[in-house]
Amino acid sequence: MTVFQPVQQSRGDHDSSGTALELPTPYLLFVGDVRERGYAKTAFGLKDWAPDKCIGECASDPQAVTTGLPRMTPAEAASRGTRSLVVAVANSGGYIPPAWQPMLVEALEAGLDIISGMHVRLADLPGLAEAAWRNGRRLIDVRTPPANIPVATGRKRSGRRLLTVGTDCALGKKYTALAIAAAFARRGIDADFRATGQTGIMIAGGGIPMDAVVADFEAGAAELLSPDAAAGHWDVIEGQGSLLHPAYAGVSLGLLHGSQPDVFVVCHEPGRRVLLGEEEFAVPRVEEIVELTIALGRRTNPAIRCGGVSFNTSDLDETEASRLMAEEEARLGLPVADPIRGGPAFDRLIDRCLG
């Protein structure tokens, strides 16, 4: 068996399939030594949105964050039918530290392939390619954009588009997009979820990892991801970063211009005071992001509008979450809902997006 399996297909016709994946499932989710939930968002995303593909989790540190799945060794997972270990971390810089590598070698020796969405290529890690070759296993890098991405044109495309944007990173843009796409489908609306990050791509089976695209082609990649479509079709596009994040705003802006959203939904985590990974910067107010997104988004879609606000209320109880969302809805004059909690508030958000 060839160690390195290409998981990317060139798309000379520039359709919307993105990176085509045939990943070996089920997964063992590797969380390394990460103790901050935000940096383990790949693990939580796969566990929440592809639970049938996840058998358990493993870690290099017993104090690492847990998804709630059974913790097991690679050998134990292999004995239960697991076919691959997923590096299920999204840390700043997308690197794999030396302390994680013994567990990756252990997984290869247990008969598992390794899947990674990190920026670093698995084959570049010392000894990993040799271990994969020795055990006849594959090293699969998901964070690989398609070839021949065009420069953006700014041309208005047919069909309709919704983009999730955020006040910060790792607070629910992917979850919100998945929930909205599912809600559209329940209403009989023709809609597709368009993945722009490694976790979304693993869930959806295709997409483009926007933060791995050369900057000049970022907006072009977004156009490629969401091409012309029927008038009633919706592409629900997973957002990345934040327009006011000092490290990742470039990805957010390219995605905004290229996706040309008719509607955007602002994602926010109440109680988060500082930006993830940039603690000297305060989290911007929701209304700042609404105003900025409209101002910048008008460049490629003059009719852009805000459909509402998605709150991540996972740290609040039901009563407190409901009270806060009702207060913010009255203050902002926009629907405010937690898509995971659902209910009438989320229905109002969907109504506003479609209206």
Automatic annotation (TrEMBL):
Using the record's annotation, list all stretches that form the D-glutamate N-acetyltransferase-like N-terminal domain: 65-145
The UniProt entry, under PANTHER family, shows: DUF1611 DOMAIN-CONTAINING PROTEIN (PTHR40690:SF1), GLL3100 PROTEIN (PTHR40690)
Q: What InterPro entries does the record point to? A: DgcN-like, DgcN-like_C, DgcN-like_N, P-loop_NTPase
Give the organism, scientific name: Sphingomonas horti
| Superkingdom | Bacteria
Protein name in the entry: DUF1611 domain-containing protein
Residue span, D-glutamate N-acetyltransferase-like C-terminal domain? 151-344
Which taxonomic lineage does the organism of this UniProt entry have? Bacteria, Pseudomonadati, Pseudomonadota, Alphaproteobacteria, Sphingomonadales
